[in-house]
Every structure is written in structure tokens, then in C-alpha cells.
Specification:
CATH superfamily of the largest domain: Glycosidases
CATH architecture of the largest domain: Alpha-Beta Barrel
Helix content: 10-25%
Strand content: 15-25%
Bound molecules: 1-deoxynojirimycin
CATH class of the largest domain: Alpha Beta
Strand order of the largest sheet: 1-2-5-9-10-11-12-13
Radius of gyration: 23 Å
Distance between the termini: 39 Å
Shape: globular
CATH topology of the largest domain: TIM Barrel
């Protein structure tokens, strides 16, 4: 593979395409059944062949793996199950040589309960780290200090018998929240960021970055004004308005400090994961506006969509209206949600066609784009039996919630190899037999999903209007989605038929159909487009 230069533009991230790697399931290089950093390095040529700008690697830091690595016990070290720091340096060097930037994923709102900081903090109320976590006395009746709930179920407070106080955990009991009100914690986190910047990483995905600060007064959240007849949810977390446990105003000042640090290095970026229920767009606007905080936010709007034009048009329009100055990173799938092909497919449909339609739509959006390993193969969600489950959320809420293991299964590389080339031994999660048929070595020829991803990425790159142009939604109802991408005087019209019937879409007489990959059966005559079921078209409008 020829050496590709790294794009040196400081705003390389605007409109960039990022490939998400879930390291435990990408490639095993040690016959352990679990993926690792050297495995990623070995497979980077595949990633580079797609034409993406960057990779985002989910956490590989030292961790007891209670939340699959999002519970970190040393933010500056590689967990032995993923390899060594030398393996990371080699990965970084190879990625850069291939023209790929590397974004790491840090969960700073919390640490593992096995982190030495927490071991020290819980020992007494007056040690050097005593205020590094969120500790609170019980109410006189012994119950927790307020009504906050954990996003993973149950109260957000856990009693610690040694310290004789409760500690806050917005997520698992094994994930105590760091106290960002403490300046020493703020400094310690900036130190970690500096460590990785000096090592050469190009950016950070900041896991739940709106969870950094909590209300200092520990005020209880009000109930969510839900319909009384509503069926109770599997997890009562959604029954509160999360006014006080996260998304606090102090975040803005801290994100500015973080940005100042990033800006001391050349073209490094931050992508904040923001989970703020009904206030998400407001928080995204606050965190990404002004050019002095996050570069962009990673949001969940399309991660739950089933691909209907109404949903997609409304997600775009709500974002454009609420966040005029900010920048978003769109995704259809990741390691936390069921794969989008399974969400979008209707009985009897051709998965290849639907995968291509979804990819075309994703690559046409305004914003940066992130897609998830295996998406380029058209993988569907796997079904994991309870006894094989690893995800703590899935185990806790079984069977009301299928959990997240079904999108975290191993990548299939070679259809005929043992465990599809992922590992020589039984993988940590079962490899889906349907996935082996869609392995990388089975695809790449014209007509395959993999070929479509490569061509569609090249098409996006070749049309600046798709990378950084404005967006104007024209239609979003029934089976029709249409929007324009506008760059100066160039206007591209993207039209999608998401339904089962052919329709005719009216165009200006001067419109010209461009050779969008994947849908040769779309035809154009003066003034209209004939769109077969599940198809996409792109026209130049003069
Ligand atoms: C965000 C990550 O994407 C998810 O996988 C994890 O469970 C939560 N943070 C909590 O740690």
C-alpha cells in the first residue's frame, strides 16, 4: 500500500470520515480469543483501503473490564489483554504512515473502583485523594443523599463501609464518578490528555463528557413529566429529568481548558459523546458552539433510527436549527446500539441493497461521519444467548433489554479460516455464522457492500459540497427523503427512496444525474428521476 500523507489542514476534521474499531473484537494476534492492538495494526491496510481519514479505537487502557474497558484503572497504560505501549506506538506509526489519524476513547467522568485514586480516596475522609470522588453522608434514615439513579439501573449511590459514606456512580457500581469540582482532578485529567498528545494521538473521543460535573448541592432530580398510563420502562432512569446529576454549567469552563491544551498541539481534536435525553441538542450547542470547546459532538439521533425519511429529516433539521454554530459527528451504528442494518431491514428485503442505501445516506450528511467496524461488510446484529453474554447492562436487564453484545461480536476476515480469521481459538463472544459469509475476503468485487463503501467514500471526497457544504432539507415524508448540499454555487440534490415501490421525483429541467455508486437502476429524464425501491440518486442542480 503506498504511503498516504496525513492531511495537514487544521480543520481536517470538518466532514472527515472516521472508522470505529472495537479492539476486543477486531483481530486477535495472541491466540487468546480476544482482539488486541497488534491485531489492529495487522489489519490497518483494510481500514486504509476504505479511504477513511481517521480511526477511533474504543478503550484499551488498564481495566478490570467491568464495563468492557470504559472502567479504567490506569488512564496512561495499555491493558495487558490488549498488548503493550510498544504495540500502541507501532499501531500509531503504521496508521500515520497509511494517512490515518488516530483518536483514542477516554472515559474521564469516572474511573474503575480498582483505580489507585479510588483505593486511596475511600480509606478516610482526610487523605490526599479524599475529595477526588463524590462522597456524601447518608440521610438520617441511612438512605442515599438524593434520588439520583444510575444509567445502568438502580440508585446512583453505593455505600462504602470503610469510608462510611455513599459514593456517586452514574454508571456501574464499579465506576465511581470523579469529582470534577476538585481542581486537582481537573489537573490530573489534563495531565493524562497531555501524556497521550505527547505520544502522538490525533484526538480524543470523550465518553459521556456531559457527566463530568454534578450539582454541588446534590439536589434531587424532578420526576419526568410522563404520561401516567405509560408502561413502566425496564430501567427507571428515564423517569427523571436529569437536571442535577449531569450537564452542569461548570462543564463549559473545563471544556475550554481542554481545548486550550489541544490547541497547543497541531490539529488535534475532541469529539464529545453527549447523552442528555431531551436536552441533548441544547447541550450539544453549548459544548460545540463558539469554536473554543469541543470540536464536535457525537450524538445518538441516528443511532436509534430505523431509517424512515421523517426521522432522518427531523434529526437533520432539529440539529441545524438548534446548533447553527456547532459541528456534529453522525453515526448509524456503534458498540452500544443494535446494528443499523437489522434496524432498517424489512422482511424479504435484500440486505446488500439496504446496506448500500444506508451508507449512501450517511456519507451524504453534513457533519463528520463515523462508521463502525463490520458496517462496511453489511453485518447484521447477532443474537447472543444469555449464557454467553458479557455486557453488564444486558445481563442486568435480561431479557427486557437484549444488551450490547450482539453488535460487539468478532470481525470476520476470511470465510474459510478458523473463526473467520479473527482468532485461532474460541472468541470471547461467538462469531455469527452469517457473518463469515460476509467476511472481508468474500467482498470487494463490484456490487458488494465493501466495494460500495470504498466508492461512496471516494464520491464524498470528490464533491466538496458533500464534505463541508450546507444542507437544506426539501422532503422527509413517506418513502421520500431529499436534501441539497450546497457549496458556493454548486448544489447537489440527494434523493432517497426508502420504500418498496418505484416513484418518480420531479427535478428542475437543467438537473444532471451524477454517477453515484450503487444504484445503476435509477434513471433520469428531463425534469424527473425514476427511483426504484430502496435507491439513492445525486443530481447536480445548476
Ligand atoms: C460510553 C460508552 O460508549 C459505553 O460503551 C459505556 O458503557 C458508557 N460510556 C459508560 O461507561
Amino acid at each position: 500500500m503506498p504511503k498516504a500523507p496525513i492531511d495537514v489542514k487544521p480543520d481536517w476534521w470538518r466532514g472527515a470520515v472516521i472508522y470505529q474499531i472495537y479492539p476486543r473484537s477486531f483481530q486477535d494476534s495472541t491466540d487468546s480469543g480476544s482482539g488486541d492492538l497488534a491485531g489492529i495494526t495487522r489489519r490497518l491496510d483494510h481500514v486504509a483501503s476504505l479511504g477513511v481519514d481517521a480511526i477511533w479505537i474504543s478503550p484499551f487502557f488498564t481495566s478490570p473490564l467491568a464495563d468492557m474497558g470504559y472502567d479504567v484503572s490506569d488512564f496512561c497504560a495499555v491493558d495487558p489483554s490488549f498488548g503493550t505501549m510498544a504495540d500502541f506506538d507501532a499501531l500509531l506509526a503504521k496508521a500515520h504512515a497509511l494517512g490515518l489519524r488516530v483518536i483514542i476513547d477516554q472515559a474521564f467522568s469516572l474511573s474503575s473502583d480498582q483505580h489507585p485514586w479510588f483505593s486511596e480516596s475511600r480509606r478516610s475522609r482526610d487523605n490526599a485523594k479524599s475529595d477526588w470522588y463524590v462522597w456524601a453522608d447518608p440521610k438520617p434514615d441511612g438512605s442515599p443523599p438524593n434520588n439520583w439513579l444510575s444509567a445502568f439501573g438502580g440508585p446512583a449511590w453505593e455505600w462504602d463501609g470503610l469510608r462510611r459514606q455513599y459514593y456517586l456512580h452514574n454508571l456501574l457500581i464499579q465506576q465511581p464518578d470523579l469529582n470534577f469540582h476538585n481542581p486537582a482532578v481537573q489537573e490530573a485529567v489534563l495531565e493524562i490528555v497531555r501524556f497521550w498528545l505527547d505520544r502522538g494521538v490525533d484526538g480524543f473521543r470523550l465518553s459521556v463528557c456531559n457527566y463530568y460535573f454534578h450539582d454541588r448541592k446534590l439536589r434531587s432530580n424532578p420526576p419526568h413529566p410522563v404520561d401516567n398510563n405509560r408502561k413502566l420502562p425496564a430501567n427507571p432512569y428515564g423517569m427523571q429529568l436529569h437536571l442535577h446529576d449531569k450537564s452542569q454549567p461548570e462543564s463549559l469552563g473545563y471544556l475550554k481548558r481542554l481545548r486550550l491544551l489541544l490547541d497547543q498541539y497541531s490539529s488535534r481534536i475532541s469529539i464529545g459523546e453527549i447523552i442528555a435525553e431531551e436536552r441533548t441538542l441544547e447541550v450539544v450547542s453549548d459544548y460545540t458552539g463558539g469554536g473554543d470547546k469541543l470540536h464536535m459532538s457525537y450524538t445518538f439521533d441516528l443511532l436509534s433510527s430505523d431509517g424512515t425519511p421523517t426521522q432522518i429529516a427531523s434529526a437533520i433539521e432539529r440539529f441545524e436549527a438548534a446548533v447553527p454554530e456547532g459541528w456534529v459527528c453522525w453515526s448509524l451504528s456503534n458498540h452500544d446500539v443494535p446494528r443499523h442494518l437489522t434496524r432498517w431491514l424489512r422482511p424479504g428485503e435484500d440486505p446488500t441493497r439496504v446496506a448500500k442505501l444506508a451508507a449512501t445516506l450517511l456519507m451524504s450528511l453534513r457533519g463528520s461521519i463515523c462508521f463502525y467496524q463490520g458496517e462496511e461488510l453489511g453485518l447484521e446484529q447477532s443474537e447472543i444467548p444469555f449464557e454467553k453474554m458479557q455486557d453488564p447492562r444486558g445481563i442486568r436487564f435480561w431479557s427486557a433489554d437484549e444488551g450490547r453484545d450482539g453488535c460487539r461480536t468478532p470481525m470476520p476476515w476470511e470465510a474459510e479460516a478458523e473463526h473467520a480469521g479473527f482468532s485461532t481459538v474460541e472468541p470471547w463472544l461467538p462469531l455469527d455464522a452469517r457473518h463469515a459469509e460476509r467476511a472481508v475476503d468474500q467482498q470487494g468485487a463490484p456490487g458488494t457492500v465493501l466495494d460500495h463503501y470504498r466508492r461512496m467514500l471516494a464520491f464524498r471526497k470528490a464533491h466538496p459540497a458533500l464534505v463541508t457544504g450546507d444542507i437544506q432539507v426539501l422532503e422527509g415524508s413517506g418513502d421520500l427523503l431529499a436534501f441539497d448540499r450546497i457549496d458556493g454555487t454548486s448544489r447537489l440534490r440527494m434523493v432517497f427512496n426508502t420504500g418498496r415501490d418505484t416513484f418518480v421525483y420531479r427535478l428542475p429541467e437543467t438537473a444532471r444525474l451524477l454517477a453515484l455508486p450503487g444504484f445503476p437502476d435509477v434513471s433520469a429524464e428531463t425534469g424527473h428521476l425514476k427511483m426504484p425501491p430502496r435507491s439513492a440518486a445525486c443530481c447536480q442542480i445548476d
